[in-house]
Amino acid sequence: MGAVKRFEIWLSMTSFGTWVIKKFSAHVDPFVFRLTGGRFTSLGPVVIPQLLLTTTGRKSGQPREAQLVYTDVDGVIHIVASNFGGERHPAWSYNLMENPRASVQVKSEKMEVIAEQLTDAEKESVWARLVDNIPNYSAYRQRTDRNLKVYRLIACTD
Questions:
Q1: How many whole angstroms separate alpha carbon 105 and alpha carbon 89?
Q2: Sequence-distant (≥ 6) Cβ neighbours of residue 140 within 8 angstroms
Q3: What kind and span of H or E run contains 62?
Q4: What domains sit in the chain, N to C, each tagged with a CATH number?
Q5: Which of 33, 59, 128, 140 might form a disulfide with 85, Cβ 3.0–4.6 angstroms?
Q6: What confidence tier does 74 reach under pLDDT thresholds 50, 70, 90?
Q7: CA–CA dist 38, 35 (Å, integer)
Q8: CA separation (Å) from 53 to 78, 89, 125, 146?
């Protein structure tokens, strides 16, 4: 694991880093990511696999963007609704529960997807691979009593 990736993982584990990401990066990164074809975020070059997820707001019906890390598990994108181990699921997770159709941008490639929430058994079968990619997930799981949701994003064929 490179030094920059280790730094980003460490930063997101700190209270200050979590605050910066939630209050600043979450608002700036979708713009920077889109503008640079998925090569940069507010922290610099992308070193941890990231995507731009666009869901439909469950209350507003409007497009909602979230910059997320992801893990490729056997050619399928997986995302974790960790919210840094917070007490509530992230808004994008509630949006996917209401309407699983979404779009993603990975680097400069855009695609339509259907989100499928993994069962607890399915989640346990891929959890080690998710943690290998993003070690923070173990700590986030310890921070909260809620069951962290994991989604696989299946490319639409229609």
A1: 22
A2: 80, 82, 83, 84, 85, 148
A3: none
A4: 3-155 (2.30.110.10)
A5: 140
A6: very high
A7: 8
A8: 12, 15, 24, 22
Phi, psi of 60 (to 5 degrees): -85, -30
pLDDT band of residue 24 (cuts 50, 70, 90) is: low
Number of other residues whose CB lies within 10 A of the CB of residue 123:
18
As a whole-number percent, the residues of the chain with pLDDT over 70 amount to 89
User: Degrees (nearest 5) of the Cα angle 78, 53, 150?
Assistant: 30
Amino acid identity at 135: P
Q: Which CA distances in Å does 123 have to 1, 10, 68, 71, 148?
A: 24, 24, 18, 13, 9
| Segment 5-23 mean pLDDT | 70
What is the structure's pLDDT at 4? Answer: 63
Angle at 120 between CA 17 and CA 126, to 5 degrees: 65
pLDDT, position 78: 98
What CA–CA distance (Å, rounded) separates 147 from 123? Answer: 10
**Residue 130 confidence class, pLDDT cut points 50, 70, 90:** very high
